[in-house]
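Record Guanine nucleotide-binding protein subunit beta-like protein, 64 aa.
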Amino acid sequence: RDFTKVISGSEDGTLRVWNMYTGVCGQVLAGHRSGITGVGFHDPNLLTGSWDGTVRVWDVNVDS
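=>
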């Protein structure tokens, strides 16, 4: 488990993975056509829901 990340979803449909100690955004994930309305964790994945009516499953453990 990685307790150094903070996740944010935004109105532009992107998901951002931040380092909570440095404040640096390490990943920007795009996949929704509308704003993200919810974020959930189901180890080892991250799930997001959007106003576009979709749910996405993400693997944020992949370094980019």
